[in-house]
């Protein structure tokens, strides 16, 4: 099998300061469990955990029976590590926190190294077979032992520094540094698809607080998704009531729904609780809430205007929002939204369409029109704007192909 598929996770000796971290949790997971899951999701097929006999007896209870761990875990004492043969291996310390996707990309870049590839001072390396034992022994001595090995290997000319990318991994030296590492993990979960205003400045900041708290509980991402949908539907119903207090409560509950929509994804990544059901429930739930808002606002405005006209307006708005949702979700499910590759009017339009492919594109018009007590403006906004949006998207990006090469990104 091509690539680096074997990893050794080295626990520090009991006398090393980092050994205290083996009893700690980071974002709800024991540090060893997190290291094992990170390696697994980075493409590692075989994992060896190096620990003392006493450590192994304690740590095995943390990982046994965890359904998320689908790779076999072997336990070795430091003196009986591995034979000097075999392929290059990833060496990882439990006190380093790195993203699985970033680690996978780094392994591809470090694959051809004939000595030891490292990430600055972080206890993370790919070692040639003859250097695996030496690296593992250094990691057993903690961060101090690792720093000494790096200095020695650099003097020998056997060290290659391969950048991991941004953000850098978090190296935890003591339990007091865990909160900062958790905040860094959550900051790294924001995506380019986040809206630049409310999404990034409000929703992500609120969701980070909730996600850190929920990660310490037994709450699952799908439970959070269900709460998001329930909050959004209740908010939509309140928005349909022609009362100022109900409108404000509806806006608050709708915004809570959007925040929880971020939390479920953050929680899934923090706790490695991914599922196909969760992805579909998340995306379809968002759309159901948006349609409910349009439905109840059409019902609200029908009390003061021609119900036939507003029924048609609500229907056209719902069709527009649905068309936009289906196209964006289809592209996303096919491998990610396309990006323009050059400047020009077409590329500018493509970037504009991408900039609106987020919750800001729905939340901002909703807040503005409802605070002005003009719900019919929102219906007209989506009856016209959403339908223009999906037509332009279709013209610029087309439909993703299920098989074969994808359409190229728009150019000038």
Question: What are its keywords?
Answer:
elongated; 412 residues; alpha/beta; 11 strands; two-stranded antiparallel ribbon; disordered C terminus; Spore Coat Polysaccharide Biosynthesis Protein SpsA, Chain A; 14 helices; 2 domains; seven-stranded mixed β-sheet; Four Helix Bundle (Hemerythrin (Met), subunit A)
Strands, helices and their partners?
Elements (H helix, E strand, L loop, with lengths): L5 E5 L14 E2 L2 E2 H11 L4 E5 L2 H11 L9 E4 L12 E4 L3 E2 L2 H11 L5 E4 L2 E6 L4 H9 L1 H15 L2 E3 L8 E2 L6 H10 L10 H17 L6 H19 L4 H28 L4 H26 L5 H27 L11 H11 L4 H12 L3 H23 L15
Parallel strand pairs: 1-4, 1-6, 4-5, 8-10
Antiparallel strand pairs: 2-3, 6-9, 7-11, 8-9
Helix pairs in contact: 1-3, 4-5, 7-9, 8-9, 8-10, 9-13, 10-11, 10-14, 11-14, 12-14, 13-14
What does this structure look like?
- The structure is a single chain.
- By secondary structure, the chain is α/β, with parallel strands linked by helices.
- It folds into 2 domains: 6-171, Alpha-Beta Complex (Spore Coat Polysaccharide Biosynthesis Protein SpsA, Chain A); 191-397, Up-down Bundle (Four Helix Bundle (Hemerythrin (Met), subunit A)).
- It is 56% helix and 9% strand.
- The protein has 14 helices and 11 strands.
- A hairpin with a 2-residue loop joins strand 8 (116-119) and strand 9 (122-127).
- Helix 4 packs antiparallel against helix 5 (142-156), helix 9 (244-271) packs antiparallel against helix 13 and helix 10 (276-301) runs antiparallel to helix 11 (307-333).
- The longest helix has 28 residues, at 244-271.
- The radius of gyration is 26 Å and the shape is elongated.
- The two termini are 41 Å apart.
- Mean pLDDT is 86; it is low at 404-412.
């Amino acid at each position: 099998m091509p690539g680096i598929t074997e990893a050794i996770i080295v626990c520090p000796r009991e006398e090393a300061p980092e050994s205290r971290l083996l009893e700690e949790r980071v974002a709800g997971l024991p540090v060893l469990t997190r290291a094992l899951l990170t390696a697994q999701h980075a493409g590692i097929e075989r994992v060896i955990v190096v620990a003392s006999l006493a450590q192994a007896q304690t740590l095995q209870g943390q990982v046994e029976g965890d359904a998320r761990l689908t790779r076999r875990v072997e336990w070795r004492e430091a003196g009986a590590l591995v034979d000097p043969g075999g392929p290059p291996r990833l060496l990882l310390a439990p006190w380093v926190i790195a993203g699985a996707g970033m680690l996978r990309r780094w392994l591809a870049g470090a694959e051809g190294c004939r000595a030891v590839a490292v990430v600055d001072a972080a206890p993370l390396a790919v070692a040639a077979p003859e250097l695996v034992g030496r690296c593992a022994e250094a990691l057993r001595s903690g961060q101090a032992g690792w720093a000494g090995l790096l200095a020695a290997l650099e003097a020998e000319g056997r060290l290659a520094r391969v950048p991991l990318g941004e953000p850098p991994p978090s190296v935890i030296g003591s339990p007091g540094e865990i909160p900062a590492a958790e905040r860094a993990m959550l900051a790294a979960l924001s995506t380019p698809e986040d809206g630049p205003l409310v999404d990034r400045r409000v929703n992500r900041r609120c969701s980070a607080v909730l996600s850190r708290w929920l990660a310490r509980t037994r709450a699952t991402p799908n439970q959070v998704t269900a709460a998001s949908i329930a909050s959004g539907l209740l908010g939509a119903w309140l928005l349909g009531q022609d009362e100022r207090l109900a409108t404000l409560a509806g806006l608050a509950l709708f915004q809570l729904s959007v925040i929880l929509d971020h939390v479920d994804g953050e929680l899934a990544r923090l706790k490695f609780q991914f599922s196909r059901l969760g992805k579909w429930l998340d995306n379809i739930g968002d759309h159901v809430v948006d349609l409910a808002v349009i439905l109840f606002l059409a019902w609200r405005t029908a009390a003061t205007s021609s119900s036939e006209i507003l029924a048609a307006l609500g229907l056209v708005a719902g069709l527009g929002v649905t068309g936009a949702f289906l196209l964006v979700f289809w592209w996303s499910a096919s491998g990610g939204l396309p990006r323009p590759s050059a400047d020009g009017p077409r590329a500018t339009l493509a970037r504009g369409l991408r900039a609106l492919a987020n919750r800001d594109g729905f939340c901002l018009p909703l807040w503005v029109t409802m605070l002005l007590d003009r719900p019919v403006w929102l219906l007209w906004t989506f009856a016209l704007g959403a339908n223009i949006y999906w037509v332009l998207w279709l013209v610029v990006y087309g439909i993703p192909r299920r098989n074969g090469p994808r359409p190229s990104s728009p150019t000038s």
